[in-house]
Amino acid sequence: MREAPVEGKRVLVRADLNVPLADGRITDDTRIRAALPTVELLLKQDARVILVSHLGRPKSRDELSMRPVRDRLARHLSVPVELAPGVVGEEVAAAAERLEPGQVLLLENSRWEEGETANDPGLASGLAELADLYVNDAFGAAHRAHATTEGVAHLLPSYAGLLLERELSELTALRDDPERPLVVVLGGAKVSDKVGVLERFLEIADTILVGGAMCFSFFRARGVGTGDSLVEEEGISLAENVLEAAERSDCDLLLPTDLVIGDSFSADAERKELSGIEVPDGWMGLDIGPQTAKRYAEAIAGAGSVLWNGPMGAFEMEPFAAGTRGVAEAVAAAPGHTVVGGGDSAAALVAFGLDQDVDWLSTGGGASLELLEGKELPGVTALGQDGTNGRDEG
Ligand code: ADP
Ligand code: MG
């Protein structure tokens, strides 16, 4: 978008403003802040900015208005932000028409329109009619072919926003041309979420460190008892395949050698450190153990680049946060290039006050995993090779 002729033009910007809410209040505005540079650049160039995003999963138009997002955006941008009465339609078109250079109009929640997730051509053309140019900056939604992320890109001269561009360059560099050794740390709830990345990075990385509930599928695949731990049953055969692939690969796949266990899934649970990995009945593995955390931290410290996705344990509960904190601190202190992706891993970094100490904190959970796996992102493909869809203006 840096070279796009935006002066005086109406620019439809698809941002990812899908922030978490509690009782109608924004609990974390990271995504709004991440969207600001693109909007600020457009305003500086006297564009008329029309922003659109989805917010949660509304069941009707009475739910999940963009109003709180509008208020927060206006505060960060220090310019008034008008909230449109809908996503498309006559009144929205009139509001877009009234917009002056340097002003911002925020459309309502794109999921108020059924055509959004269906990538309906009618909705896409309704959106295209509002603007002269389209900028996609919504990396977090780029793995979905929706009307605001994909359909509309075919109807207007289209460009990549600054956030989308940076996300693509950070993640593709890790995948295609990493500083070595490349150490990948994978944790979180389910093997099935991460199996694509695991298999892909067995061919790319030098070391993969596995933690989180996901490791219990691996232990079961090896016939190790997991007690009452959270085990994704369908993950067991996936883990078996990954272990077989690891045998053939030059990459080292490391699993925990000790654990922290609790007698219930609760912050008040009785907590024990287990020197091995065989979890007794009545207990569940809730964190990697201190030996494992130390070994993982050492690997991270020696890395040329690090990719971390997924917490090492149930870090939301303080008695089981040490493993995730140890990895987070090691990533923050690592001399190599560090990239963190995944909603809960990002939340863990923020909770530990370490989010400023990594080189790149990806805003896209699912999108970052799909890109790392090597899948095409429809929202990116629609922009074309050079970040434009090949159309000239006019
Ligand atoms: P991300 O969003 O970073 O990709 P996931 O969504 O895959 O991560 O997984 C994060 C969740 O997994 C967290 O809520 C965490 O509490 C949970 N979790 C991690 N390890 C365990 C465990 N051993 N037992 C139960 N839950 C766990
Ligand atoms: Mg998550």
In short:
The protein is an alpha/beta fold. It has helices at 30-44, 67-77, 90-98, 115-118, 121-128, 162-176, 191-202, 215-221, 233-248, 290-301, 322-333, 343-351, 366-373, 378-381, and strands spanning 10-14, 21-22, 25-26, 48-52, 81-83, 104-106, 133-136, 158-160, 182-186, 207-210, 252-254, 259-262, 271-274, 284-288, 305-309, 337-341, 360-361. Magnesium ion (MG) binds at residues 342-344.
CA gyration radius, whole angstroms: 23 Å
With strands numbered from the N-terminus, the spatial order across the biggest sheet is 5-6-4-1-7-8
The largest sheet is: 6 strands, parallel
Counting H and I runs of at least 4 residues, what is the number of helices? 14
**What form results from the Cα inertia axes?**
elongated
Distance between the termini: 17 Å
Helix content: 25-40%
Q: Tell me the strand percentage band.
A: 15-25%
Q: Uncertain runs with pLDDT below 50, 5 residues or more?
A: none
Oligomer: single chain
Q: Given the helix and strand composition, which structural class is it? A: alpha/beta
Structure ligands: adenosine-5'-diphosphate, magnesium ion
Arithmetic mean of pLDDT: 95
According to DSSP, the number of beta strands is 17
Describe the protein in words.
With 394 residues, the chain is of the alpha/beta class. 36% of the residues lie in helices and 16% in strands. It contains 14 helices and 17 strands. The protein has helices at 30-44, 67-77, 90-98, 115-118, 121-128, 162-176, 191-202, 215-221, 233-248, 290-301, 322-333, 343-351, 366-373, 378-381, and strands spanning 10-14, 21-22, 25-26, 48-52, 81-83, 104-106, 133-136, 158-160, 182-186, 207-210, 252-254, 259-262, 271-274, 284-288, 305-309, 337-341, 360-361. The strands form four sheets. It has a six-stranded parallel β-sheet. Strands 11-10-9-15-16-17 form a six-stranded parallel β-sheet, sandwiched between helices. Strand 9, helix 7 and strand 10 (207-210) form a beta-alpha-beta unit. Helix 7 (191-202) packs parallel to helix 13 (366-373) and helix 10 packs parallel to helix 11. The longest helix has 16 residues, at 233-248. The radius of gyration is 23 Å and the shape is elongated. It starts with 9 loop residues before the first strand and ends in a 13-residue tail after the last helix. The site of magnesium ion has 3 residues, from helix 12. Magnesium ion is lined by residues 342-344.
